[in-house]
Automatic annotation (TrEMBL):
Annotated organism of origin: Salix viminalis (Common osier)
Protein name: Pentacotripeptide-repeat region of PRORP domain-containing protein
Swiss-Prot/TrEMBL keywords: Repeat
PPR repeats: 19-53, 54-88, 89-123, 124-158, 159-193
Cleaved signal peptide residues: none
InterPro entries per UniProt: PPR_rpt, TPR-like_helical_dom_sf
Pfam families membership: PPR_2
């Protein structure tokens, strides 16, 4: 990583100045290694050279900030981005919503989800899956169930990933009856449970057997 940064500095002093793609690559590497604040410094350096950040640039930084708990920085970056009239796309919103749920900021996550519709941005199947997973993590099973059905009503047909997300969430909340309902529904549509779902089912069955024995 240090060699890469040295190479960047060397390029800046030669006739081969780094471009946005070069900076994006380095920022992504820094974020991956848990150094999003250093990535932000590169972002500022890039802007000082007159290079325009792209949506990819912002998605790299937002993902890095959210995954490493720098949520205030992520929201500041979103605001700065909007002030520059560069509107976030659904990929950026998905990153932010997931980051807020990871940090336990349910209200902010729900506000971001609501803002999608105000801004005229179409959610994706992944957006709904992120929301459903987050709601279940917070123990809001009824809200998650309703959102899953709303997702279907809005024309987003659940896939294998969507089903596994909601099944795992209900299993984590010890609601095996609803989980089994979704399992039958999933299998009926030709999808199958992934390894994590199978393991959770086995763990729950073992737990129930122990409780019954006692």
């Amino acid at each position: 990583m240090e060699e890469a940064k040295s190479l960047l500095a060397e390029m800046s002093h030669k006739a081969l100045p780094p471009d946005t793609v070069t900076y994006n690559t380095l920022m992504q590497a820094l974020c991956r290694y848990g150094r999003p604040k250093e990535a932000l410094n590169l972002f500022k350096e890039m802007c000082s050279y007159g290079l325009l950040p792209s949506l990819v640039t912002y998605s790299i930084l937002l993902d890095g900030f959210c995954k490493h708990g720098h949520l205030d920085e992520a929201l500041k970056l979103l605001k700065a981005m909007q002030e520059k009239k560069l509107e976030p796309n659904i990929v950026l919103y998905n990153i932010l919503i997931e980051g807020m749920f990871i940090a336990g900021k349910l209200v902010v996550a729900e506000e971001l989800f609501s803002r999608l519709f105000v801004d005229g941005i179409q959610p994706t199947l992944q957006t709904y899956s992120v929301m459903i997973k987050g709601l279940l993590k917070e123990g809001l099973s009824d809200e998650a169930y309703k959102l899953f059905r709303k997702m279907e009503d809005d024309g987003f047909l659940p896939d294998s990933c969507s089903y596994n997300v909601i099944i795992q969430g209900f299993l984590q909340n010890r609601d095996s009856s609803t989980a089994v309902q979704f399992i039958y529904e999933m299998v009926g549509k030709g999808f199958s449970a992934d390894s994590s779902t199978f393991q959770m089912l086995l763990d729950l069955e073992s737990h129930d057997e122990i409780c019954t024995d006692n």
